[in-house]
Amino acid sequence: MKLYDVTRPIHSGMAVYAGDPAVTLRRALSIAAGAPVNVSAVSLGSHTGTHVDAPVHLRDGAPGVDALPLDLLIGPAHLYALDTGGTIDVADLDGLDLGSCPRALFRTRPPLSGEAGGLTAAAAALLVRAGVRLVGLEGESADAACSADFPAHRTLLDAGAVILEGLDLSAVPPGRYEIFCLPLKIRGGDGAPARVVLRTLD
């Protein structure tokens, strides 16, 4: 058995989605300054780093991250390696046995200049039809950065699928794993950072 931590570390000044709150970490109490303990103050957006999107992210009144079923966040997952750094379209999913596992993670190559990332609405719809209930991506968003209405997000979230963004799958071979994805339990949260670990099945 081998464990892969596919979570991006959170740190001050890290890259965030355009328009999201910046990340700052500072020592509020310091042993070096005479306090009995070290305590940090953390300021970040709910969609920082490796994180889960909840339905209320796109729909007022929809369930928050604290209402996501644990059985969607933990269980068998298939990691697919795609030869694209741009937006994942239906053609990129051709030939994949998507119906074999309800959790699909996609490792892509580093994007070239001008490549948008995310999923097309058609690709998201194909995943829903295949029975995929959790979609994991390396990029900051399931939609291309230029998207104004977030069609891939809406397609997945409206179907009850979980969106997991900001993964670091660079060191993980494609194949079958067990995923453990535990987002912070923020009451009514539109999203939450998560610690995500993959475990080999052998």
Description:
- The protein is globular, with a radius of gyration of 17 Å.
- With 202 residues, the chain is α/β, with parallel strands linked by helices.
- The protein is built from 4 helices and 10 strands; from the N terminus they run E-E-E-E-H-E-H-E-H-E-H-E-E-E.
- A 7-stranded mixed barrel has the order 4-8-7-6-5-9-10.
- The termini are close together.
- The chain has a single domain, classed as Glucose Oxidase, domain 1 (3-Layer(bba) Sandwich), CATH 3.50.30.50.
- The model has no long low-confidence stretch (mean pLDDT 94).
- A hairpin with a 7-residue loop joins strand 9 and strand 10 (191-200).
- The longest helix is centred in the middle third of the chain and has 9 residues, at 121-129.
Distance between the termini: 6 Å
How much strand?
25-35%
**Overall form:** globular
CATH superfamily: Putative cyclase
Low-pLDDT segments: none
Radius of gyration: 17 Å
Largest sheet: 7 strands, mixed, barrel
Please write the string of helix (H) and strand (E) elements.
EEEEHEHEHEHEEE
Strand order of the largest sheet: 4-8-7-6-5-9-10
* Number of individual domains: 1
CATH fold naming: Glucose Oxidase, domain 1
- Which architecture does the CATH hierarchy give at level 2? 3-Layer(bba) Sandwich
The helix count comes to 4
Number of strands: 10
- Highest-level CATH class: Alpha Beta
Q: Tell me the structural class.
A: alpha/beta
Record the SSE blueprint:
Blueprint: E1 3-5, E2 24-29, E3 39-43, E4 51-53, H1 70-73, E5 74-81, H2 90-93, E6 103-107, H3 121-129, E7 134-137, H4 151-158, E8 162-165, E9 175-183, E10 191-200
Parallel strand pairs: 5-6, 6-7, 7-8
Antiparallel strand pairs: 1-10, 2-3, 4-8, 4-10, 5-9, 9-10
